[in-house]
## 1
Amino acid sequence: MTTSTTQSANGSEDTIALFPLKSVLFPKGRLPLQIFEQRYLNLVTHCLRSNTGFGVCLLREGEEVMRPGTHQQVHRTGTLARIVDWDQLPNGLLGITVEGERKFEVEDCHYDERQWLMARVRYSATDYAGEAPLEVDDEQEALVDLVEQLVSHPVINRLGMNIAYHDLRELGWRLSELVPLSLERKQALLELDDPYQRIRDIEALLHRLMDES
């Protein structure tokens, strides 16, 4: 089952619920999730009924599942996600697929009475789905080929991403997600505001990976 989406204004502030994960999500990227904690079941139900999203943030400290006496600390740069598909999984859990929409910076956060981590965020004025595309140079065609190869993997292909391969901004987003990098490196790439710098950093990381192999 699918849901429609809306977008928030560039550079605007909003208050949203956060979903702390050991994953980094970029705009237009898709992420499958299994939902079993009651607070997140309630959050997903709320988002589906109100056609709203939640923020995906990489955990800096703590685990995805909260235990008594533990806490979670997240990185301050995350991505607003919308639920684009949901279904009951064979194991009985709720499965959802979310799609990244736009990057944000967390200005402050707190737990509310529902045990949702609520955050006041400011949306990026540059890193968001739907922005005017940036041309890919001939020198970057090898990166386009690499993304096409990565997306052809059955696990990635099943996500059904609609990829603009020759948009340099999206090329950087998809490489940041799909190249086997540490979560910390992916987070550093997300935090960059300059899409050209992101591509340069990815190229440097790819050269390093080739040298080490």
## 2
Amino acid sequence: MENFLALEITNLSKEFKTKQNTIHALKNISLNVNKGEIFGLLGPNGAGKSTFINILAGTVIKSSGSVKVWNFDLDKNPREVRSSIGIVPQETNLDPFFTPRKLLEIQAGMYGIKESERITDKILEITMLQDKADSYARSLSGGMKRRLLVAKALVHRPPILILDEPTAGVDVDLRQQLLENIQQLNKQGVTIILTTHYLQEAQQLCDRIAIINHGQLIALDKTENLLNNILTKKIIFKLKVPKNIGEKLKSGLTINYPKPELISVTYNKNENKIEEIISEVKEKNIEILDILTEDADLEDVFLKLTKKNA
């Protein structure tokens, strides 16, 4: 395999001018996506994620900066860039009177793919839609419609798949099916760029994560490293009999009561030792049934960074 990046973005900016002022949707964004990784693009509403995706899709023209997709320059080779990307939109916009097979065939025709070179049946199998291949799209469940959007994006065999909020509005079981589908596509060599509001999904799937806020890149690292940057941990004591033991421990740590039978203490893992906290709580003459610990999750990282950048 040739040695180049799946996506190479350098100083990407986008400005929208209005009569009153200039809106800076993206400000000098620089990031790379490696071949074969699942890359998370996170940020609150209005952060610039959609503008970023639309520039890659060719529906929004950048103001400045350089974009390379699968080693094709967006300015010099826009057609090749579009062919290298499959985009799964957030909105479920499907013609209800076509079957999945017909929709995929139409999509292939739009890309100029010869009938002999089409892989419609394989895509239906990959997205687990073979049993519904000849049913009208209007009869499909919400999860199946999501999978059909993924199938449409795969018609021209793009090496990069961009998934914009792929599990928005689906139930827990369907969400898990879709996540497994994403992982399977990645194992087959597809590079995945994922935007999601479900931070647990990003934590579960992504090798690396970029967080943007107000059009600026505020974090870019391996998921594990981002989590390690949060030093707070939580220890939870489950009591046999509910009891209030005050508001603070001798060490000054604050005591919280999420439920009557639970005592929770948040601490800094660089400053406090868990054994000392347990010892202090046991001194309160209470009967402890169980002790649990919780590490920081991606939501803690996200909130910390976006508040800092607000």
